[in-house]
Amino acid sequence: MSVELTSEGGFIAERPVYFLYHGSWDGGHDVLGAGKPATVWLFAEGCTRKGFEEWLCVQNPSSEEAALEVTYFAGDGPPLTKQWKVPADARLTISVNGDVGPGRDVSARVTSSRPVIVERPMYFDYNGALTGGHDVVGYTPL
Predict the structure, then answer these.
(1) What CATH number should be reported for the domain holding residue 62?
(2) pLDDT tens string 86-135
(3) Range of 90's domain?
(4) How many CB atoms lie within 10 A of CB 95?
(5) How far apart are CA 24 and CA 42, in angstroms?
(6) Is residue 81 part of a domain?
(7) Separation CA 64–CA 121 (nearest Å)
(8) What's the number of domains the chain is made of?
(9) Residue 26 and residue 4: Cα distance in Å, rounded?
(10) Among 2-6, 9-13, 103-107, the least confident range
(11) Which candidate, 1, 19, 22, 113, has a CA 20 to 30 Å from the CA of 126?
C-alpha cells in the first residue's frame, strides 16, 4: 500500500513499520516520506549475502504506466540492468535478491519514464545473532 499526504501548510511525514519477518526476524524500521516523485533514484548500499533480503518498493502516482530500468552496480562484475513496469496508480515490489542473485553487495540506480517514488527496505539475520531490518528512501539528484 502507498499513501499520498497533502496539506495547505508544511509538514514532515514518516512511516514506522514493526515486523516479525519470516516468523523469526523481529524488529522495526522507520523512513521519512519522499518530498516528491522523480525519474531517477539512487541507492548507495545493498546486500544479498546469506541472511539478507533486499527489496525496492516503487510507487507510481501517475495515471499512466511507468517503465523502469534498474541498474545494479557491484564490485564483482559489470553493471546488471533489469526492466520493470509499474501500472498506473499502483505499487511494485522488486526482489533485489531475485534480480542479482545471492552473495552480492550492490548499489542501484532506478530510472523511470514517469516520476515515481522508490524506497529500499532490507531485512536480515546476521549470523543467527542479530535480526532486524532498515529502510531508506532513495536519493534524487538535482
Answers:
(1) 2.60.290.11
(2) 999 999 999 999 999 999 999 999 999 999 999 999 999 887 777 888 88
(3) 17-137
(4) 12
(5) 30
(6) yes
(7) 25
(8) 1
(9) 28
(10) 2-6
(11) 1
Contact residues for 135 (Cβ-Cβ < 8 A; gap 6+): 17, 29, 30, 31, 119, 120, 121, 122
Residue 12 forms part of a structural domain: no
DSSP helix/strand/coil, 8: coil
Beta-bridge mates of residue 119: 57, 137
- Cα gap 113→109, rounded to integer Å: 14
Scan for cell 496539506, then name that residue: 7
CA distance linking residue 59 with residue 103, whole number of Å: 27
Strand residues in 4-129 grouped as ranges (E): 14-21, 25-32, 38-43, 52-60, 66-74, 77-86, 90-95, 106-126
**Are the beta carbons of 74 and 100 closer than 8 angstroms?**
yes
